[in-house]
Amino acid sequence: MRLFRRRQDDFATLAADPEQRPAALAELTRRSRMVGRVKSGCASNSLKTPSHGGAFTLIELLVVIAIIAILAALLLPVLSSARERAKEIQCKSNVRQLTLASWIYATDSGSHAAYNAPTDPDGLWMAMGYYGNQKRIMFCPLTRDPPVRPAYWGAADRTWVWGGQQGNNTNVYYGSYGLNGWLYDRPAWGGSGHPELMMGKQSLIQKPSQTPVFLDAIWVDLWPLETDPPAKDLYNGVYPKPGMGRCTIARHGVGNPAHAPRAFDTSQRLPGAIIMGLADGHVQTVKLENLWQYYWHLNWEPPATRPH
Predict the structure, then answer these.
(1) DSSP letter for each residue of the chain
(2) Is this prediction's pTM over 0.70?
(3) Quick one: pLDDT at residue 15?
(4) What is the mean pLDDT of residues 123-146?
(5) Model pLDDT, residue 121
(6) Per-residue pLDDT for 96 more than 70?
């Protein structure tokens, strides 16, 4: 209202005194511009929202935390699976190298392993330079060392310890893999009752691509038969029996092997798998349920139904 009255006075000045018209006109223009800026500022201020100075509200903070928790829940299983997969790849590499060493030895001597190496008669195949000198490939990354003892069998997540057949050998060996005992150069221990099933010569292997050589096991060697049932304890396996129970452990394919079933109903399909190197040199992951379909000894006949 005051500005309006001032404008009336200015118009009156312009009309009454011609000499003061230029100065009055300039003053009127200046006041008009000021009024326009004030109106524009008021309009823009009316559209602004209250400012919090850049800080998060409690609700915003809770939403961010919830999103982070959801992402973590989604990513952790993926990362865990990736770690297990990397360990399985390393385990396959170890078994492949052991199997290749057995193939080289078989090419030189005719058999895949000696039961008594001349340098250490109580050291079995581990005492042979082809295998035992390569200690880094004797361990599956999914297994851990047990307490140091003269002799101790392994488990799904534990290495075995071999201190000789009487437990007092000066050379102690550790490992995660076992040899198919039917491939020794002579029948011994588990093979002594069935010498006719031995494949002590490479020429006796009937199906190289289906004949196991080295594999995940709880002990240094094993002599499976078609009638052997699996272990009910898929963590500890079966010891001291020399058959299939020594390798029916859920080391792969079930996540953490420490959580392998301890009292499994063997009438159900077996969970888990092991890594196996075959006589033709290739390596694969084999489900426990399918172990009886491989040719472990001479004239093996895969059973129509897996023993329970």
Answers:
(1) -HHHHHHHHHHHHHHH-GGGHHHHHHHHHHHHHHHHHHHHHHHHHHHPPPP-TTPPPHHHHHHHHHHHHHHHHHHHHHHHHHHHHHHHHHHHHHHHHHHHHHHHHHHHHSSSB-SSBTTBTTSGGGGSTTTTT-GGGG--TT-B-----SSB--BTTB-EEE--TTS--SS-EEESEEEEGGGBSS--GGGTT-GGG---SGGG-S-GGG-EEEEE-SSSEE---TTPPPPS-TTT---S--SGGGT----BSSS-GGG--SS--TTSPPP-EEEEEETTS-EEEEEGGGGGGS--STT----SS---
(2) yes
(3) 46
(4) 81
(5) 77
(6) yes
